[in-house]
């Protein structure tokens, strides 16, 4: 009886869960974007001083509830030596956010190279892509049309998927809401990747674990967990 009632409760009240990767070069503003997102969508969340956010070594994890669904974010380090870990997270992500630093023109070719390698993965075929042109609040930054031109040769690699080029400032919050709300609509309507609760690979997750199997194999000491307070523990049960 308990099992039956528990299953019914989950069916009625449990939110569909979608996993979103936040990728880009180091210092592009990925973690600041994640912190800003949690501040905007989690009323009880108190963020760190955004001007003092440091470069991520490993990953940051965050979750928000919006429009009746739960988004779980994986903010991965963007240093060159960490980019080789990105593809370990591709198989079951529902959405991609790629952050471009519109101030650091010198590293733009490097950013595009990392983007091309990422988006060329067959594992990510059809996954919605939000391309964030960050730091638009900084005087002298590259404009959105300039970034679009710089990434123009990458267009064929993007293929048939939902894609949005969104100007934003992770520091001030401009453009963050628009990007997140767009992503929610895209992951919900993408029938090729159903919400986490329906994925058959859920059964492969170790019971009671809050991290996916491949994360458990990594050095957790280098992993910084960051979540909003929803009144219950964050359960990550999808990635393999």
Automatic annotation (TrEMBL):
GO terms for biological process: Golgi to plasma membrane protein transport; intracellular protein transport; protein localization to Golgi apparatus. GTP binds at residues 24-31, 78, 134-137. Gene3D superfamilies: P-loop containing nucleotide triphosphate hydrolases. Pfam families: Arf (PF00025). GO terms for cellular component: Golgi apparatus; membrane. Coiled coil: none annotated. PROSITE patterns: ARF (PS51417). GO terms for molecular function: GTP binding; GTPase activity; metal ion binding. SMART domains: ARF, RAB, SAR. The keyword Ubl conjugation does not apply. Keywords: Acetylation, Golgi apparatus, GTP-binding, Magnesium, Metal-binding, Nucleotide-binding. It comes from the Eukaryota. Mg(2+) binds at residues 31, 56. The keyword Acyltransferase does not apply. It is found in: Golgi apparatus, trans-Golgi network. Interacts with SYS1. Trans-Golgi-associated GTPase that regulates protein sorting. Controls the targeting of ARL1 and its effector to the trans-Golgi. Required for the lipidation of chylomicrons in the intestine and required for VLDL lipidation in the liver. This is ADP-ribosylation factor-related protein 1. The lineage of its organism: Eukaryota, Metazoa, Chordata, Craniata, Vertebrata.
